[in-house]
Amino acid sequence: MIPTLDLSQKRLIQIFSILIMTISNIKCGSHYIIPSEQVRADHNNLVTKAESFTKLVIVDSLGVTGADGVISFPLNDKQSIFMMGDSFLTPVRKNKRDVKSPMINNSFILINKKINTHTALYNNTSTIPDALLKPIYGNPLEYYWPGHGFHKNGILHIFMSRFLHGDYDWGFKFSGTDYIRMNKNTFEILSQQDFPYSNINNVHYGHSLLNERNETYIYGAWSRNDSTAMHVAKATLNLEKNQLDRFVFFDGRNWTSDPLKSKPLIGIHKPVPEQFSVFKQGDVYVLILQVRELGNGNIYSYISESPTGPWKNEKLLYQTTEQNNVEDQIFTYNAMAHPQYTKNDKLLISYCINSFDVKKIHEVNTDYYRPKFIWVPLKMILE
Fold first, then answer.
1. Burial 346-380 (b: 16+ CB within 10 A, else e)
2. What whole-number distance in Å separates Cα of residue 181 and Cα of residue 159?
3. Alpha-carbon distance 262 to 255, whole Å?
4. Prediction pTM value
5. Average pLDDT of 282-311?
6. E-strand stretches of 276-360
7. Does the N-terminal peptide bond of residue 310 adopt cis geometry, omega within 30 degrees of 0?
8. Residue 230, H or E segment
9. Which of 344, 351, 350, 269 is nearest to 312 (CA)?
C-alpha cells in the first residue's frame, strides 16, 4: 500500500492485482502456462494501431478521461455503448490529471463513430461524479463493474458484476451478478434483478453475450486457486416482455436447468481472464482473450463451429509492449473485441493499460490509464 494515496486509489491497485491474477503459474485444465512464454515479434507486424478509436473513446475533457473495461455493443449502425469500469472525468492537461481526482466504479460512453462524438453517461456532475449504475440491496459497500450487454427493440439488456469492498484478501470480493434492463433513449432502469446462478456455481456470468435468433448465450469466467475455465448459460428472449428467461446451463453435452452441472468449455488452453469476447463471424464463432499472467500481454483467438465449443485453432494475435516500461510499472490486461466495427477484413480489439504506481497514471502520463485499440486481420484468426 502507498500511504499517501486515498482509499479509491488504494483500491485501484487491488483491483488490477486481482483482475490479472499475479501468480507465477496458472493451471488451465491439465495445462500449465509459464508467464515467461516467448512469442515471435512478427505477429505484431500484421497488426496496426487504431488511433482514431483510441482518441475518441477516451477524451481529454467533457467526458471520460481515463478508464478500463471497454466492453461494447452496438445500438444501431452508427452508435455503440462502451461499458467502462473504474472511470475518471477530471480534465487532462498536457497528459496530466490531478492525483486526487474522484474515481467512479462504472460509466457508459455513447460513441457515434460516423460523426466522432463521445457522450459520457454517469450520475451527478463531472466534478463530483457518481457511478451510472449501483446495486439496490442496501449495502453501501457494494458496487458494480461492467459485464456485457445488447440492445433489442428499444431495451438495453445489461449484465453487471457486484463486488463488496471490505477487509477481504484483496480489499474486495465478488458478491454476485445482476441482470438489468434499461430504456435505450433515456437510460431509465426498467428492471434490476439478481442473477442468482453466479452464487450457486461460482461462475461470473455476463462477461460476454451472444445472440442467435431469440436465444442469448451468457458466458462467464470461473476460477479457483490455480485453475480457470469458461462456462456458458443460455436464455430465451421473451419477445412479449422483451426480457430474458428460461435459463439453462451447458453440461458438456446438453443443456440442463441445474447450474451445478455446468461444465467448462473445452479447447481453451490459456488462463481465462475475467473479461473476454465471444462473437460470430460469418458461420464461425470466435473467442478473443488476453491471458491472465502479469507481464505477458499475449492476446489469443480461438474458433468453433458451435457457441459451446469445442474451441480450436489457437492463434497468437498480438503481444502488447507497454508492459516493457518497467520504470513506470506498466501492465496490460483484458483485451476485448468490437466486431461491429469490422472493416476491410480487420477486427477492432482494445486492451487496457495501467500502472502499479497509481500516481503515475495522473502525474506522469494519463495514457497509462487509457485503453489502446488495434486492427487485427481476420485471416490471422480464421485461417
1. bbbbbbbbbbbbbebbbeebbbbbbbbbbbbbbeb
2. 9
3. 9
4. 0.90
5. 94
6. 277-281, 284-290, 298-304, 312-319, 330-337, 346-355
7. yes
8. strand 227-238
9. 269
